[in-house]
Amino acid sequence: MPLKLSSRAAKIPYYPAAGGYGLPDGVALMASNETPDAPLPEVVEAAARALAGTNRYPDPAYRPLRDRLAGLTGVPSERIAVGNGSCEILLALGEALLEEGAELVYGWPAFSVYPHLEAASGATAVRVPLDAEHRHDLDAIAAAITGRTRLVIVCNPNNPTSTAVGLDDLRGFLAKVPEDVVVILDEAYVEFAERYRPEESLPLLDEHPNLVILRTFSKIYGLAGLRVGYALCANEELVGAAARVRQPFVVNVAAEAAAVEALAHPGAIAARVAQAREARAAVDAGLRDLGIVPAASEANFAWFDLPAGGPAAGGTVDDTATPATVEQAVIAALRAEKVLVRSGGALGRPGALRVTYGTPDENRRFLAALGRALGA
Description:
Layout: H1 7-11, E1 28-29, H2 41-51, H3 63-73, E2 80-83, H4 86-97, E3 103-108, H5 114-121, E4 124-129, H6 138-143, E5 149-155, H7 167-176, E6 182-186, H8 204-207, E7 211-216, E8 229-233, H9 236-245, H10 253-262, H11 266-289, E9 301-305, H12 323-336, E10 339-340, E11 342-343, E12 352-356, H13 360-373
Helix pairs in contact: 2-10, 3-10, 4-9, 11-13, 12-13
């Protein structure tokens, strides 16, 4: 029976989920920007202890996690929201702020959930192309703001392009944004960045009352399967705006307990950051050996355009192949060698690939398989 969806729901795109689920062991999962490292044993134990109390609802204020975050960041707990991943907070703010006649501005390509905001709210999206270096063009984004703009999003480091803009650039950009326009600085990958450290962007919250900084436990902390993120807000009103439209109990007790414990091990997190940076250097060098110049990554993944006129279906070489057909042929060749990567076409740039850094062995497997796919 065909469903009669509301006009709003019919416009919301499906999230372009990556492959890799239900596959046998031995597949290099390099498509979803997860860390290859399992959670720390202490984190797993904390989550397991919390499961004993799952006959009770979570504390809807999530006081333990918000207090721990407040102590680490200096942002008062009243200005911190936690959610079912940072994505859930993002969607809540979109619902609270946007409506028909309003505008939403963001760079593109960027996080593939951003288009959900305009479709769900009826607002008009203004997508600003990235610059030639795959970075946010902050001057162009500022110029795109009008009297109808309610929300601006800057993903830094940017997903899927792995690039980042510097703190001085962000500060100059924020100075141009009217105070009645909310700016979300999406820092899901900030721990991996080298342009500035995570603590260095926090003073922006005291300088700009319209700012929200989004962060997550899904990446460097290895809690993607538990879904917990947080927002550091310039004022309590922004926290309240999201709370108005969200269901209660958005974070389960195991996720909260795991996140609290994860924050207690900064040394282990620093080691993971160093490991990711070593992987970044190795994959970057390997790609360049294949004649590919990746974007300047500040994240835990690489982004690059495939060579023009690459392999076509069947392993042949077709000088007239389109970027999209080259991309799909390479992805199929990699998959045949049990290496999964992310399609650039699904993320806004046909002919590109996004590849999460894996273990040293997985990175070597990927580079070797890519070389064979390209005939290098």
